[in-house]
From TrEMBL:
UniProt-listed HAMAP family: OM_assembly_BamD
InterPro entries reported for this sequence: BamD, BamD-like, TPR-like_helical_dom_sf
Protein family according to the UniProt entry: Belongs to the BamD family.
Keyword Phosphoprotein part of the UniProt annotation: no
Full protein name: Outer membrane protein assembly factor BamD
């Protein structure tokens, strides 16, 4: 980097102080004073603020690079760096918008995988516990899947695949939470639909054994013993050593039925897809 003129350096410092004041006051980029600066000087100031952990100010300065020098090579890099600064500042909405704007202008750029990664991470960081609405969780899953589909051989996709498993487990947990809610209120068919979703859509998650046991409970509560036995058999075939199978086995026994699936018979036992599917019912709970 060439030596910066004293006047340019002073301008950057003055602008940085103005930006800091706007940042503390909750200002947006539209509130920032326009001070014409050399593109290299401006970008360096933004990078310096990023390195110091002043992420909000860094994001504003990177935006200024794009604002003042939209057709320079620096602007393209600043656009993505600004998105990264917003992410570090936990301003995930702005990070997503900045990344999407980068992709709209530079769809074939070599840094496009990273832009998709920032979008996915920004959704992922906003995932809430299973007692709340899971719209963001689904958006995170979609964004991670998009990254993996477009750029499967990148290091970003490798991390995305790990996060996909966690997100799917979270979504399955939400289905279980709602299913148990219906069970407590005796709405057995609605509960079965939720547990079936876990078995059908999220069968590789940690919630599948409990879902099969809950299906056994719900079918027995409806008096549909054959379906209950099938669910318990699938549970025994796939998860024979779990507490969930022990409970299902006990439940079936209390109803005068027998369902024993030895470990040696697991290969020929019913699979997860063999559990009967109930007909849809009206469901007003998210």
């Amino acid at each position: 980097m060439r030596m910066l003129p004293i006047r340019s350096t002073a301008l950057v410092l003055v602008a940085a102080l103005a930006l800091a004041g706007c940042a503390r006051g909750g200002g947006t980029r539209a509130d920032l004073p326009y001070v014409a600066r050399d593109v290299g000087t401006l970008y360096t100031a933004a990078k310096d603020r990023l390195d110091r952990g002043q992420y909000k100010l860094a994001a504003a300065l990177f935006d200024e690079v794009e604002r003042q020098h939209p057709y320079s090579v620096w602007a393209r890099r600043a656009q993505l760096m600004g998105a990264f600064a917003y992410y570090l500042d936990r301003n995930y909405t702005q990070a997503i918008q900045s990344s999407q704007r980068f992709l709209a202008v530079h769809p074939g750029n070599r840094d496009a995988p990273y832009a998709y990664y920032l979008i996915a991470l920004s959704y992922y960081e906003q995932i809430s516990d299973v007692t709340r609405d899971q719209k963001i969780t689904q958006q995170a899953l979609d964004a991670l899947g998009e990254l993996n589909r477009r750029y499967p051989n990148t290091r970003y996709a490798a991390d995305a695949r790990l996060k996909v498993d966690l997100v799917r487990d979270h979504l399955a947990g939400k289905e279980m939470e709602v299913g148990r809610y219906y069970q407590v209120r005796g709405q057995w068919l609605a509960a079965i639909i939720r547990f079936r979703t876990v078995v059908d859509t999220y069968q590789t998650t940690t919630h599948t054994p409990e879902a099969l046991m809950r299906l056994t409970e719900s079918y027995l509560a409806l008096g549909v013993k054959e379906e209950a036995k099938k669910a318990a058999a699938v549970l025994g075939a796939n998860y024979p050593g779990t507490q969930w199978y022990a409970r299902a086995y006990e439940l079936i026994g209390k109803h005068g039925e027998a369902v024993a699936v030895p470990a040696s018979a697991a290969a020929t036992a019913p699979k997860l897809d063999d559990v009967p599917k109930p007909k849809p019912v009206d469901d007003e709970t998210n």
